[in-house]
Amino acid sequence: MGVFGASMESVYLTVLIVSGILVLFYILFGDALDGVGEGIPFLNPVLILVFLVFLSAAGYILELVQVMNSLFIFLLSAFSSFLLTTLLNLFVLVPLSSAEGSIAYSEESLKGRLGTIIVPIPKDGFGEVLFESNSGRIAKTAASLDGAEIDEGIRVLAVDVKNGVVYVKPYDERTLFRNN
C-alpha cells in the first residue's frame, strides 16, 4: 500500500525528516511563535511536532519490519504517538512551563525574612542586604528602620519594603520578642 504512488516507508521517512527539521527550527526560532496555541494547550506547536515525529518514527520502523497491515501500522503508530506525546506533555512540558516563574519573588515576600548586611548602612543612609533561599540569593538596597547605623555581617529582619528599599532592623533572637 502507498500514498500517491510512494511507498509507506517513504511517506513515513519524509514526514519524519520534515517534522524533525521543523522541530529544529522551532527550537531556534520558537520565540516568534510564543503566543500561538496559548488558549488551547493541546494545539501547542511543540506537541503537534512531537506527535508527528513519534508517529512517523514508529510507522517507519514498523513498516520496515513489515509484520502487519499498513492501516494497522498507522493506527498503532498514531495510538503510541498520542500516548507518548501525552506523557511528554504531562511529565516534562507542563512542569517546565510552571517552573519558569517559580524563582521569581515579590518585594512583599521579603517582609519577615532574615538577611545579612553586605554593604554597611550608615546613619540615615542606605546599604545593601542579602537574602538567601533555596532558589538563590537576592541583594536589595536597605535602610535602617530607625535610622541607626548597621555594620556589615549583621543579621537583620526585613520589616517593610517601600519604593524598592527594604527597611530592616538588627535581628537578635534573645531580645527581639522581649516586652519593653
From TrEMBL:
Record keywords: Membrane, Transmembrane, Transmembrane helix
Keyword Signal carried by entry: no
Entry-linked Pfam families: NfeD_TM
Membrane-crossing segments per the record: 12-30, 42-62, 71-94
InterPro entries for the chain: NA-bd_OB-fold, NfeD2_TM
Domain of life: Bacteria
Membrane protein NfeD2 N-terminal transmembrane domain segment(s): 7-100
The name this protein goes by in its record: Membrane protein NfeD2 N-terminal transmembrane domain-containing protein
